[in-house]
Please model this.
Amino acid sequence: MPNQIARSLRKGSTNTIGLIVTDIANPFFSSMARIAEDEAAKLGYTVMFCSSDEDCYKSSLEIDTLVNRRVDGLIIVPAEGCTEQIETLIRKKIPVVLIDRYIPELATNYVVLDNYSAAFEATTHLIQQGYSKIGMIAYQSSLIHMKERVRGYKEAMEKNNLGKNIWVEKVQYKNTQIDMEKAIDNFCMGNNKASALLFATNMLSIRGLYTINKKNLKVPEDIGIIGFDGIEAFDFFYSPVTYIKQPVDEMVKEAFNILIAQIKGSEKRVRITLNHKLIQRQSSMKPTSIANTTDSPVG
Model:
């Protein structure tokens, strides 16, 4: 067997790429990893995966490990507070592309979703269905993608003269289920109940649906729902879930194209923002309009 390390030293390349996501168990990121593995194989590369658990310290250790293993480049979903880590990679001229999120103050390559437009359209859809007391459940985070999703929701409410009904409950990543139960109680158990909810991520959608079911609330009779990202669980829920579909396949392929170009010496800065599709289904329809439910994408 040839000595791979010796061969890599001669070539100056290991034909490996590091991919750091926040949680490989999250269906969105596991899908991203699967696509990345396939895309890398087409290009003659192997992918090394890591999960940061939204922990900047853990992310730093993983970056150091991957760099020490001489990966040719990195695709990173940055955790909160990781600006200095990414800045160091840029300064050392290590090829890096951010995916799903970016850091506004850094001149990096990235591929992201237009999160503002996605949340704006989802909220507008609920309003058009006749909902007015629309709440949003998001993570407590300073990351740009979360801030943009919240901004899209708020501006859609304001544009439709529902600014007085803006209601955002934020949960901690490390305490999601407990905080989710409190949030659902706040939205659904008081005198001033919300009529619909927008979840800011797919994991929040899953936790939220679990909690709603646990509390014997009916969708959409008691509460309308829109989730982020489509997962198989949405198909098996008794009320098929309306969701914002992210183009994860395109996102990963674009990130690989940018990274490979960097590895080959390109210094061009590339920033790509992709569009979503809103998949309209029963969970966001007022009971009187369910008969007209479609499963077709819009937007």
